[in-house]
Write a sequence for this structure.
């Protein structure tokens, strides 16, 4: 059948008929000028802004077989505009070829599937144009990874991500897979194809399931081995270093002022101001922490020259023995991995600053790097001023997200300003707890940046006993940023807490050097902060609590640059449940107080915090189940043995032979199916809340009948104690609870034996000692069950007694 007949027939053929009639010369292989008037269905032509295919499915609606090319894009353009003619051309050829000549042995798509394909196509096209990717040949592996990261961010970034189901993720990813599948058909049409398989060795189904897991809550928090180092480092920088940087910025601003040069030219005043600013910065002395300045002087002449010479000699020796320089890719640009170089040379992480700031060493390294196509930027005094300012801002950002669980959109929505009557940020207010024994700090955020209608959210960000005067870490962080960025807010007239510093190479002097805050800039600065200030170089390959094999390797190799901002939400919930002893004391106290505030009865009212807490609860139980099913852990307590036997029997066979990651996903699903997600965590164990009649806390309080009528069975917090819970039929104790019981054993034995040392009258001590002996006996039994060496604990008791003897 001739093509003109297909195009001009008084009764056009259906889509299937056209495909059959043009099989010898498919439409997607024809020249663009010959396609305009040709039919693709009984009612649509190639040039139409909307294609409607003819579906042979009985009762199918026309819109189920349609794709609209009338798509608004960034910058006010439309896909049908002449400027996007090439993009629209290959997209139409892609879609038609998938029906006319499916590649890689795939079956031919049905016309009724066009609408589902259209949904994913529209999302990809909008993203591609925003990122200047307009040809299949530009869809490199890195670009595809960035697209997948975009879906991961949406799945985990806020409440709307809950709508990113596996089905939606499939529609958005199948288009990428289709472009690869149809690469030969596109090449025959004169369109260069994708350079590599888009997803590497992973299947598109595996990635779809991962994104679905992110949206439903099984996505992992940042591994504790990583998040603890980041949070601790950020918190430390908000003390003395933050004060120094604020002083340095103020000093530089004062030095730049040239009011005494009125009447001189603008360029002259600018040059003099820059010279004065640089001289002021070079003379600044950083405060000492632990006996030495926390940062080297900005003036290279003030450095310890013996140290500099040692680094210079070691660098020369290093360059002489290696052929290839280690590299790291940041935003698609290749840089020398100077962190790896200094660690390999035997120096502590952070000493790479000298390789960038010393003109001689940087020149040598840059020349070698240039030959390999790498960059090794020089850090001047003015550049370092900007870097230090951004570092303090990023430290504050981390502390806010990590200790509150905010989404990054809420961080962008924080407002500046101090309430003079309280000394607190205006966005923070204090309420009495429900019991009246504590004060709860509540943060109000503005969602006008991300919502069509401005909306405010409230978040519990800390708590303290009534009458105490300390403030939560997040409040400290907000106060620091409020002060540090005040001059730059003024330049652009905004009340946003964070702003974007875009000036180069130093601190902004005019409004052109400052921009409104964006999530992308916050994320970029956060990753740069972690890469420079947090040492991850000695991380092992595997996390202590494995949910996938070699989980820590990407964190170590990327220096933490793989972090996604939404992961802080899950880490926050994790630490509220499990306060880690490796945290700085101020952070331990914070999470302990937040945990109390959230169980107090009224201040866990933010839906995002509630969802994250529930998600982490499921993750923790899934981790327990996986560890038990693989024989790597035991549970103690009256509920422990039964629970352990159940998991071994039901989950063990299911995960046999699976990878760690696949087994974790199976465990996550199993927890829901087996009804194990209703658990409550304490530092000393896990309440399974089996039933009101099997919960010692309700028996003690006489609230069994009342608890039975509650829609959600929870413990009675007013009567819970470690001793009561340890003997409860609903209670189990995991290995990570062991430190609590070890310390309880040591303190109990010491409490009894200390009277031997002080030779105190024991006449009235029988009853207290009896309680302490019972507590020690209970603790010892649990410690043995969990694998502790009681002789080592007894040695700790002897050390404490010896200290008491010396004190006496």
């Amino acid at each position: 059948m001739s093509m003109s007949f297909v195009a001009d027939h008084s009764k056009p053929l259906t889509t299937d008929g056209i495909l059959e009639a043009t099989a010898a010369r498919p439409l997607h292989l024809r020249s663009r000028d010959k396609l305009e008037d040709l039919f693709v269905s009984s009612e649509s032509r190639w040039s139409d802004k909307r294609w409607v295919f003819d579906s042979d499915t009985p009762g199918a609606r026309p819109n189920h077989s349609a794709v609209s090319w009338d798509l608004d894009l960034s910058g006010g353009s439309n896909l049908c505009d002449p400027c996007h003619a090439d993009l629209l051309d290959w997209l139409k050829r892609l879609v038609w070829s998938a029906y006319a000549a499916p590649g890689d042995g795939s079956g031919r798509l049905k016309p009724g599937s066009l609408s589902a394909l259209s949904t994913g196509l529209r999302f990809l096209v909008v993203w591609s144009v925003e990122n200047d990717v307009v040809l299949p040949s530009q869809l490199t592996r890195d670009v595809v990874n960035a697209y997948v990261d975009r879906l991961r961010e949406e799945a985990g970034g806020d409440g709307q991500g809950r709508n990113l189901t596996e089905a939606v993720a499939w529609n958005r990813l199948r288009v990428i897979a289709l472009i690869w599948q149809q690469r030969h058909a596109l090449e025959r049409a004169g369109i260069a194809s994708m350079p590599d398989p888009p997803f590497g060795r992973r299947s598109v189904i595996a990635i779809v399931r991962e994104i679905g897991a992110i949206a439903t809550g099984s996505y992992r928090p940042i591994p504790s081995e990583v998040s603890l180092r980041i949070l601790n480092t950020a918190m430390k920088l908000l003390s003395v270093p933050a004060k120094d940087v604020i002083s340095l910025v103020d000093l530089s601003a004062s030095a730049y002022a040239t009011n005494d040069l009125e009447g001189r030219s603008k360029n002259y005043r600018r040059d003099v101001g820059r010279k004065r600013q640089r001289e002021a910065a070079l003379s600044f002395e950083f405060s000492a922490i632990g006996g030495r300045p926390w940062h080297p002087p900005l003036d290279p002449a003030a450095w310890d020259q013996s140290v500099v010479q040692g680094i210079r000699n070691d660098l020369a020796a290093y360059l002489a023995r290696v052929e290839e320089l280690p590299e790291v890719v940041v935003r698609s640009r290749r840089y020398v991995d100077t962190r790896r170089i200094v660690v390999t040379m035997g120096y502590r992480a952070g000493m790479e600053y000298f390789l960038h700031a010393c003109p001689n060493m940087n020149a040598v390294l840059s020349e070698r790097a240039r030959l390999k196509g790498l960059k090794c930027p020089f850090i001047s005094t003015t550049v370092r001023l900007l870097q230090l300012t951004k570092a303090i801002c990023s430290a504050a950002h981390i502390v806010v997200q990590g200790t509150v669980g905010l989404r990054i959109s809420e961080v962008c929505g924080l407002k500046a300003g101090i309430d003079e009557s309280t000394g607190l940020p205006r966005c923070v207010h204090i309420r009495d707890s429900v019991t009246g024994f504590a004060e709860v700090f509540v943060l109000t955020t503005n969602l006008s940046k991300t919502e069509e209608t401005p909306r405010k959210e409230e978040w519990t960000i800390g708590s303290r006993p009534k009458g105490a005067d300390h403030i939560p870490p997040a409040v400290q962080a907000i106060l620091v940023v409020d002060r540090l960025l005040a001059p730059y807010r003024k330049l652009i007239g905004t009340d946003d807490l964070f702003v974007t510093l875009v000036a180069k190479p130093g601190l902004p002097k005019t409004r052109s050097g400052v921009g409104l805050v964006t999530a992308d800039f916050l994320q970029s600065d956060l990753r740069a902060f972690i890469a420079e200030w947090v040492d991850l170089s000695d991380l092992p390959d595997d996390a202590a609590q494995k949910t996938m094999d070699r989980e820590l390797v990407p964190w170590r190799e990327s220096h933490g640059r793989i972090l996604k901002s939404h992961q802080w939400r899950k880490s926050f919930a994790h630490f509220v449940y499990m306060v880690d002893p490796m945290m700085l004391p101020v952070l331990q106290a914070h999470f302990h107080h937040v945990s109390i505030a959230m169980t107090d009865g009224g201040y866990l009212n933010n839906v995002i915090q509630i969802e994250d807490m529930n998600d982490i609860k499921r993750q923790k139980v899934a981790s327990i189940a996986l560890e038990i099913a693989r024989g790597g852990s035991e549970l103690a307590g009256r509920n422990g043995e039964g629970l352990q036997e159940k998991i071994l029997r039901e989950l063990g066979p299911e995960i046999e032979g699976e990878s760690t990651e696949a087994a974790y996903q199976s465990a996550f699903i199993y927890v829901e199916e087996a009804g194990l997600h209703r658990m409550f965590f304490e530092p000393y164990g896990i309440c399974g809340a089996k039933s009101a009649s099997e919960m010692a806390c309700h028996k003690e309080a006489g609230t069994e009948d009342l608890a039975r009528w509650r829609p959600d069975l929870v413990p009675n917090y007013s009567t819970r104690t470690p001793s009561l819970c340890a003997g409860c039929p609903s209670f189990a104790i995991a290995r990570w609870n062991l430190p609590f019981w070890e310390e309880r054993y040591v303190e109990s034995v010491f409490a009894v034996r200390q009277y031997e040392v002080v030779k105190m009258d024991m006449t009235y001590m029988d009853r207290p000692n009896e309680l302490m002996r019972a507590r020690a006996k209970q603790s010892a039994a649990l410690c043995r069950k969990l694998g502790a060496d009681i002789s080592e604990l007894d040695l700790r008791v002897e050390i404490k007694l010896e200290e008491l003897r010396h004190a006496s």
